[in-house]
Structures are given as structure tokens and as C-alpha cells.
Amino acid sequence: MVTASDDHIGLYEGLLTTRAIRRYRDEPVPDEVLRDVLFAATRAPSGSNRQPFRFIVLTDGPVAAEAKGIIGSGARRFWEAKRKADGYDEGSGTDQNSPKARMARTMQGYVDDFESVPVLVLGCFVAYRHTSHVDGASVYPACQNLLLAARALGYGGVMTTWHFAVEAELRSLLQIPDDTTIMATITLGRPVGSHGPVRRRPMSELVYGERWGEAPAWAADPTGVQHTAAGPPPAP
Questions:
Q1: Fewer CB atoms < 10 Å away: N or C end of the chain?
Q2: How would you write the pLDDT of the chain (236 residues) with one tens digit per residue?
């Protein structure tokens, strides 16, 4: 199996530093890396250990190119509408150095270059009962395993749902059976830039004790952790 990258990290550090990677070097992901990353994905837990997840891995063949083109086209339409609706070019977004503007640039570059991503992975769910709102619980842990394994081996990726707008076309192209649902679109590659400590809201805003909105005394971030104000406001 492939060993961890030169910037060897432990499991806990990997959990704290795995960023969403949307920019990739123009180089293929070796087959042995794909093998190890997907092996880690298949080790994930699932409801009743049924393992209803399946992964379609698309790299550089003609079908892969067509699938990337289908999703890329849909992603650009979706992002154009979201960018306008969410006001990414208004308020602090007019400051090109603001987090809002940087995110907009990253997302625009991501969708504009979607066809060139080294690897496209579709995480799927094979139904074994009537569709339920909890089906994702049997797929998303495997997707997270995949992303963490990529981080450990010097690669990176991001999970999206760009497939939603073009699912019918994808199903036809990839001959996905009727009892199977695409649950996640994941891109992978060697990062441009690097992973690093992620910024999130303070733990005291996200972790509660015996009452909603009241954090236990131990729910305090380590010294030096940087935060973001993204997301919904704290509970009153």
C-alpha cells in the first residue's frame, strides 16, 4: 500500500487539517493511490453493516470526459445563480481580500475548470428499502474516509452535490440502475496549495450540554485556534 506523504500526520491532526481542496495540479492520480483511497472508503461503517455504498471512479477516459463535462456545465449554471442570490459580489465581497471574495474566486475557478479535475468520484446508494431521509448516513462516512485517506497520502478533494441538476444525464451515460441514487460528487487530485488548520465557529457555539444553547465548561477551543463567522448565527 502507498505510505503517507512526507508531511506525515497522525489521525487526529488529519481530522483537524483536512480542507476542502478545489484546485488541483495538472497531474494524474496514480492507480495505487486510488486503490488505497477507495479501500479506505470501503472500510467505513454503514447501517446494519449492509455496505450499500458504491463508487464510480472516473479519470481520463472518454466516458470520464463526458461525465465531467455534464457536471461542469450544471455546476456553472448552479454557481452563477447562487453567486447572485447569496450576494457574493456585494458588501464585503467587493473587497477582493475578504474571505467572501476569496471564496467566490475559488468557487468560480473550480466550476470553470471542472472538466480538468484529475479524478471524479460519484458516491452512490443502492436501495434495500423504501427511500429514507437517513440513507445518506450509510454513504457519507465512506465519503469522509475517502477524503481523509487522500489527505494522508498527499492528495485532497471536496464533496459536493453538483450532480443534482444533471442526474438524469449521468444515469444514462453511466448506466446506473434505477434502484441506485447518486449521493455525492467528489473531485480528487494533488492540491495546488496545501491543507492546514481549518477555520470553524468556536466549539462553545456548536456543542451544548444539558440545555440547548448552553455549552458545557469543557467545550473550549485550544489556545490559538482561528475562527470563522460563516454559517448561521449562534443560538440566542
A1: C
A2: 666 554 567 899 999 999 999 999 999 999 999 999 999 999 999 988 889 999 999 999 999 999 999 999 999 999 999 999 999 999 988 999 888 899 999 999 999 999 999 999 999 999 877 777 788 899 999 999 999 999 999 999 999 999 998 999 999 999 999 999 999 999 999 999 889 888 899 999 999 999 999 999 999 999 988 888 776 666 66
In order of start, what are the domains of the chain with their CATH numbers? 11-196 (3.40.109.10), 199-236 (no CATH)
Sort 21 into a burial class: Cβ within 10 Å, 0-12 / 13-18 / 19+: buried
CB 100 within 8 A of CB 79: no
Written as one string, the DSSP assignment of 82-113 is HHHHTTTTSGGGGSTTSHHHHHHHHHHHHHHT
Q: Please name the residue that has the C-alpha cell 503517507.
A: 4
Q: Is 157 left (phi over 0), alpha (psi -120 to 50) or beta?
A: beta
Task: Map residue 122 onto helix, strand or coil.
Answer: strand
> Amino acid letter at 57?
V
* Separation between Cα atoms, residue 58 and residue 55, nearest integer Å: 10
| Cβ neighbours of 136 (radius 10 Å) | 15
For residue 234, what is the DSSP state?
A: P
